[in-house]
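Many introductory courses stop at the sequence. We go one step further.
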Amino acid sequence: MWKTLYQPANSELSINTWGVMVTLAFAAAAWVVHHRTRRVGIDPDKMVWLYLIAIVGGLAGARLLHFTMATPKEFFADPMIFFRVWQGGFALYGGLILAGVGGVTYALARGINVWKMTDAVFPAVLLGVSIGRMGCFFAGCCHGAIVDLPQDAIAIFPEGFSGGQLWIVPHAPFLLELTHHGVGKNDVVVMATQLYETIVTGGIFLAMSWLWNHRRFDGQVFGVSLMLYAIWRPINEMIRGDDVRGLDHLTWLPTSWPVHTTSQAISLPVFAVGLLIVLFRFNRGVSPEAPFQPTQEELVEGSAPRF
């Protein structure tokens, strides 16, 4: 819709809306994590490295999962395509998994309470997903299936708008879009599944923010967040309509196989992990916590992030 946010005249360089929204997503998530970890007694200076791990691991993991699962032939024929990020191709779960493993490893190495950290971090990650999916909407990727435009659809943008159109429908499927110059299907009406995810993950973030203030045990917010997203993601996958869906290249799978995309397959163990966390942590309670207070020496001399 707005694939390019800004491009100087007579220049091949441009600022893409997807990149801007992903940057805002990381910034918003980091802001939430910074304030919440401080409230439970975690030194915010220690979290700076976590943000770097999240950025590098998130982008690298998302890139790697896309190429190894969605388009493996293309990747193994030319592995250097991994670094050509302008050619697109990111799978959200890959970023969440690699950034999560890196973040937990770092927390253990620095003596950070993992359960308190993950309770503060994962809802913020879902806020980032909510914002980042707006970038997908603007780019025209990760869209839904092609549908007919209902007569009662209400157009949002002026007729003839160069980017495309967004419609509100007073019944299912509620939000429809058409993109002229996107990276997905152009000039056809599709379900705006990116905005569905923006709304749902934003809602999960708000619900988990309430739960974070009322949690009964450390790890509760993390476990419940994993389960909620693992329930939602396969539903969204069912109505997605972009061509590369992750498991299409596995021709040996039977046609009756209920899981058809990478994200649907990954959602099963993600839900199981969330459930196990809730079950095994249920009677552990919330360990003592107090807002982080820097020492007098740090107040006078300042402090810098240390690995």
